[in-house]
Amino acid sequence: MTAAAHLPSPPRRRAAVRLLLLLTALAPISAPLSAQTASPRQPAPRNALVYFHYPLDGLRVPERFTVRIGLKEMGVAPAGVDKPGTGHHHLLIDTDAGPPDQPIPADYNHIHLGNGQTEVVVTLPKGTHTLQLLLGDHTHTPHRPPVMSQKITVYVR
User: Fold this and answer.
1) Do 77 and 53 form a contact (C-beta atoms < 8 A)?
2) Residue stretches of the chain with pLDDT short of 50
3) Is 155:60 a contact under the CB 8 Å cutoff?
4) Alpha carbon distance 67, 129 (integer Å)
5) What local confidence, expressed as pLDDT, does residue 65 receive?
6) What is the pLDDT of residue 30?
7) Tell me, what's the pLDDT at 40?
8) DSSP of the chain, one letter per residue?
9) Closest CA relative to residue 134, chosen from 84, 83, 100, 107
10) Distance from chain centroid for Cα 18
11) How far apart are alpha carbons 68 and 26 in whole angstroms?
């Protein structure tokens, strides 16, 4: 058998070449189209503010304590609820916030309050710990701009 036996007939070959050229020409367009279908970050008012009611920066706390959260100029909604001007809280423990265009991870250092809670009981080992609040949209992604508290330090006794 020769190599020519495996090639399509000339009309089919021309159609295949045209299809390949068309796909090649469309390749640069397909990336932006897929980017347009991704969910954009939700806008947040410039004056939106998330803050700690308790604990406050520098406070000595027991190993088990309740974090109470305040929010101004936005509302709280459970994760998965796509309602403008709302989000749900995330408590960051001993970590920095990640990229603002990526969903907030769910692990020991990133506590999701996905049911719309405004307080959470945490248990931390004795020592110095940092806490920070970050509001996430219905997809757990920070708003634009991110609604984030100052990082505070607590001393667990």
Assistant:
1) no
2) 1-7, 19-38
3) yes
4) 13
5) 98
6) 36
7) 83
8) --GGGGSPPHHHHHHHHHHHHHHHHHHHHHHHHHHHHSPPPPB--TT-EEEEEESPTT-EE-SEEEEEEEEESSEE--TT---TTEEEEEEEESS----TTSPPP-BTTEEEETT--SEEEEE--SEEEEEEEEEE-TTS-B-BS--BPPPEEEEE-
9) 100
10) 42
11) 52
CB-based contact 151:123 (threshold 8 Å): no
**47-81 pLDDT tens trace:** 999 999 999 999 999 999 999 999 999 999 999 99
Structure token digits, residue 123: 């248990």
* Token output for 84: 């403008």
Classify strands 152-156 and 60-61 as parallel, antiparallel or unpaired. parallel
